Amino acid sequence: METHAVYKHRWLPWILLLPTFVILLVFLYYPTLETFRLSLYRVAFLGLRKTFVGLANYRELLTNPTYHQVFLNTAVFSALVVFFSMAIGLFLSVLANQKIGGRRFYRLLLIWPYALSPAVAGAIFLFLFNPQAGIVNYFLQAFFKVQPDWLGQPTLAVGVLVAAAVWKNVGYNVVFYIAGLQNLPGDVLEAALIDGATPWQRFWKVTFPLLSPMTFFLFVMNTIYAFFDTFPFVDLLTQGGPNGATNILIFSIYRDGFRFLKTGVAAAESVVLFVGVVLLTILQFRLGERRVHYGG
Amino acid sequence: MKRFILVLGLAALAVPAFAAKKVEITFWHAFGGGRTAFIKRMVDDFNYTHPGIEVKVEYKGSYRDTLNAAILAARQGSAPHIVQIFEVGSQLALDSGIFVPIEDYVPADLKFQLADYIKPVANYYRIKGKFNSIPWNSSNPILYYNKDIFKKAGLDPENPPKTFGEVMKACEKIEATKAAPKCITWPLHSWFVEQWIAEQGALLANHENGRAARATDVYIDSEAMRRIVKWWKEMYDKGYYAYSGKPEDWDGANQIFVSQQAAMLITSTSDVTFHQNAAFENGYHLGTGFLPIPDGVERNGTVVGGASLWLTKGHPDAEMKAALTFLLWFTNTENMVRWHKGTGYFPVLNTSVKVLDWEHWFTRNPAYKAAFDQLLQSKANRATQGALLGPFPEIRTIIENMIQAVFQGKPIDQALKEADAQADKALKDYNASVGQ
Q: Which residues of chain B have pLDDT under 50?
């Protein structure tokens, strides 16, 4: 079959694609290659001075305990964010999918946080969790006589950050899960109902497996969110503190690159993040292929 | 007739187009909010009174953003003429090689202005005997306190604590009388640590704070530092010290003090105007005092904080001259008076101080007085000159992490030793990156 018949000339499709290529080249491929190159240099003043140092920047990442902590923080933080935003997202979507009065209103409210800019979301959490002047501690003090130092204790600070990141992203998962739930084949669920399956069984044996393509897609998207889009929360809420407990890779890259002007090290961190996310995505697709059920 | 007037009018409009082209100067600074507008008004005044020069002023974000933007612009050959750079960026600015030592370019007839800077300011910005930049906004930390809470706690509202020990005693009283939920707050910022080191006459880096030669060793594991951290930790453990939990959170500390959750606040003198207004709006009486210092040491004084104005190199002579004309006008006697009244930053010229004295400004506005006296009483030595360190931003983070680690229970000796090693490494890496 002739698939090129639409175009009279061979070069026409290339010309039509040219703008995309130019944009990809200038804004994506060139910066990526430049990052790889810079990671091999010791750079001063954002590139005013450069010396080739080979893999020294990577050695620094592997040997300096500060970066070990950064990698560990990133793994823990991302895992928590991905798990909770998807679990809560799914739970809320199932609730919002019930045929109850005002469900459109509930759905709207659930999606709302997603529409906020992360900077605003971060500022809201900063106000909420200020240990002396925040509303959370105001109520805790009134009812339980405690005033936790939310952002000053490592575990609590990670908790607040995860809560903020999850709260912001749950709406995104709700949108997709509700769409997924509404497209489920009704006959399968009906058959399960007639066979006497309990609601619990119906959810775990029928609904959840049928949602697996959506879950898989959201898993990839949430992972990317947790790695790349959580920067504003760290920047606004903790600055990586207390004592580096919330210093995740994306924040560390920014801080090393633009505050400490260690461009070479920051580039090496970017490469690590890049390779990490690529590997993780490949792994997800490998595992996903086997588990995901695309039938309908 | 009407047509004639129209032609005349158009001709008048067209004339400036044939006139000599104005010299355009760009000026980047890091002051947002109301200060952006304040600076713009001053620049407009300059442009109005200097028809041959057009200064374009731009707010470029934080101090760091401004410095980064200037370096990137210089790389592309389009550097702004004048850049505001924060005091700890001084060594970085020197090493970047994109600026000229300004003193070499000041015209002979304006040299007198360089001799007019108040001593502590000249002391800081004269690097190896020469002004590399024009001092502009200068500040240092002072104690702000709530006189009403002091009265409630039975403390003398006209006599704020002056030493670490006195602060501790005042806190005991405030807690015992429940006059306020917390006693004192200040941002968890390395800046205060640096000030307390200087107050003790101690150095933060070798080679005389990096002033005699490039620093190669940071002194974090020192007796002076131990005194500070020990007291701070005790204040934290007893629940006297409060902060928002986030490092370098100036607003968070202000919020705690303004909402009267704490009786005292240590922060920059540049916030005097802000706190006077806040006290008025929230209905309490504000007092100011010197920065409390460790007990049993002689008060050496504070390091000048703030920023100065740097001139980039590689511009035609006419532009360099115009930029200097603007710089020296912008920081002249009358403009420094205006700047001080509008912000609380120090009037950095002796003549400006005379003008303010003549106006009885400090007697009419006592809150500004503590700030200024503290600066004037600072001794001129290597300690109060402040350290010159290339990777200062990173060293600040190392110090702040160290303090949070101590709060969480890390033994002070171990924390200081580890932070010292980290800071030395940061300095070594930096020095290597600039080829030293």
A: 15-18
